[in-house]
Design brief:
With about 270 residues, this protein is of the alpha/beta class. Helix content is about 30%, strand content about 15%. The chain has a 7-stranded mixed sheet, with helices on both faces. A two-stranded antiparallel ribbon has the order 5-6. Strand 7, helix 8 and strand 8 form a beta-alpha-beta unit.
């Protein structure tokens, strides 16, 4: 029996994704102000994780709507372009002088890896392509998508659904393992959703302990602040500030077949994927 297609966001019949829900991924890119678990790490999001946008992301990441992969990849590239355009000149010069940037996904759990549902790694690949195509610094910039983080074993599961913000922070506080040398590399972290920021904060601490330079984090959506009502339409922009202020050897070759890619060089239209 054939089941009629419905919009992954609002449920409208006979469309994979209606124009209104697709528009929710257009941005603008906003800084997330309430992810206290990330410390000083700048985090930017395309949208707020609620309403149709929440349904859209859940359908994609849980495997029920694999037909959304192209749309989410386009959103990742779009977010990367906005992120690159918002960088301060001094930071652009610093990264360009380094000769490259690593785009590192937040680590997936063992269950998701066994199922092959590495959505953060897929998103990191798309973000890397977007940076390679939009880098404002000129010259050659090597952009690598590198899945080099792994969660440490825990006695309790890592699932966060239904847990308090405090419990979420505790569950994500342990820094992941870094599987390859990253010393000297500028790094942009990538994840699908940020809630408390603890996951991204622990990733940044692990990478900085390995002598990488964390530039910030980029996510598709940010959970609404628990301390304030967020106005606007469901799935709208995350609470925002003004846009972002403010050659090493590749890290140890391939450490995972999925998510470790050369995205390209930003010079003169040279793009290798």
């Amino acid at each position: 029996m054939l089941v009629p297609l419905r919009c992954a966001g609002c449920g409208t019949w006979d469309t994979r994704l209606c124009p209104s829900c697709r528009h929710l991924l257009d941005g603008p890119l906003s800084e997330v102000l309430h992810a206290d678990g990330a410390g000083d790490l700048p985090i930017h999001a395309l949208a707020t994780y609620r309403g149709p946008l929440r349904a859209l992301v859940l359908g994609w990441k849980n495997g029920g709507r694999e037909d959304l992969a192209e749309v989410m990849g386009e959103a990742g590239q779009h977010a990367a372009g906005l992120w690159s355009a918002g960088l301060e000149t001094s930071l652009v010069q610093e990264v360009t002088k380094a000769g490259g940037v690593l785009v590192v996904p937040a680590p997936s759990g063992l269950t998701r890896r066994l199922r092959g549902r590495l959505v953060a790694a897929d998103l990191a690949d798309a973000v890397a392509r977007g940076i390679a195509r939009s880098w404002p610094g000129g010259g050659d910039l090597l952009v690598l998508s590198a899945d080099v983080l792994r969660r440490r074993p825990r006695l309790r599961g890592a699932h966060q659904r239904g847990r308090s913000a405090r419990r979420r922070r505790l569950n994500r506080a342990s820094p992941p393992r870094v599987l390859a040398p990253v010393e000297g590399w500028p790094v942009l972290l990538v994840d699908d959703v940020v809630t408390t920021g603890s996951t991204l904060g622990s990733c940044a601490r692990a990478l900085e302990a390995a002598r990488a330079r964390c530039l910030g984090a980029l996510v598709l959506a940010a959970a609404p602040s628990p301390r304030a009502q967020v106005s606007g339409v469901p799935g709208g922009s995350a609470p925002s500030r003004p846009p972002l202020s403010a050659s090493p050897a590749p890290p140890g070759g391939r450490v995972s077949a999925h998510g470790d890619q050369v995205a390209g060089k930003s010079a003169a239209g040279v793009h290798m994927v």
